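ping. complex inputs:
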Amino acid sequence: MNIFIDYRSRVPIYEQIKKEIILAVSRGELKPEEQLPSLRALSAELSVNINTIKRSFSELEDEGIIYSVAGKGSFISDRAELDSYVEASLRSFSEAVKNAKKLGVDKEELATIIFNIYGDGSDKND
Amino acid sequence: MNIFIDYRSRVPIYEQIKKEIILAVSRGELKPEEQLPSLRALSAELSVNINTIKRSFSELEDEGIIYSVAGKGSFISDRAELDSYVEASLRSFSEAVKNAKKLGVDKEELATIIFNIYGDGSDKND
DNA sequence: TAACTGTGCTATCACAGATATTACAGTTAT
DNA sequence: ATAACTGTAATATCTGTGATAGCACAGTTA
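pong. complex structure:
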């Protein structure tokens, strides 16, 4: 599943897992109806307690990203809507911009950072 | 001191206080050698325990923003360097940009947000 | 001396995250 | 039916952190 947990982060593990899955769906790596690893398998793979995995999955289910069936497994939802995550991302982006502005950062500096991360228009990543 | 605490926020109170003071210094509202409210005064004004205020001040002192003298009070440091805070702000900005990119947000959309927050070049705030 | 300052320490409480364990119920293949 | 998987649920425990309360002590100032 290519999920990396940063134990030093203040972000809870269950949220890190949620985010990784959401991003995988966003990238198209996880497609609708595709089966996720079982709770116990992911628990073993990540060395994270099954209850923590369960929490991630339960919240993702509440948010309509996945659905789970007892006895079968967990699957990517047919129409996994990511709009709310994009909105949340834009909100935190806005907060970051406001904070930088308050600290006197020039807007051109922010533009440059975006330019560097997105690339010059070609297909470079990260 | 014009410090507003959001008790619903997940950001600890002592960090909110730190941030407010740092931003006040950044805005020039708090000038070098200017005295801060006493621990007990701020504690009473904000209805926050003195230990919590103390933690904010201690960390700010560790970070070179303020200095405290027993019996006298706490003061803005002579050369309060905010560079590390600007760097931290830019780091979190970068994270926000990367996250938005991963979610497929167009870079022009981010540029628009910056444009709206910074204004069109005139002097509007927030 | 009195009234302020900051400092230090201990103790307590509440909450959240994470873990461990056990048990139960649904699905699938043999 | 059985075995081996799935998810679900509940309880208990441990831990770290944030926040509070209270006390004592030391430096400063008028």
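The beta strands of chain B are 66-69, 73-76.
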